[in-house]
Write the structure tokens for this entry.
Amino acid sequence: MKPPRTQPLLVEIGCEEIPARFLVGAREDLWRNLSEALGAARLIPEGSSPALRFSTPRRLTVWFPAVLMKQGEQVDQVVGPPVRVSFDEAGKPTKAAESFAAKN
């Protein structure tokens, strides 16, 4: 099996001058929020190097050395109502089956 394809990702935000007392917090917030979003989207490969973060009074930057170019496969199993409740005697879907289908 081929390893998943990755590429680096650089996110740089230019802004008005950030006061020195807020700079570290802003940089760490950006890094944390991006890491959480990419992790939730399953785009950070397992065992990858941690992201680097940089800042100046007018720039916030986060560099991810490897981000997956496509999400991995995911299978979700959803259990619906029992067959005896889902269909009537004529084999037509009941309100329970229709509600489950609409929700999923």
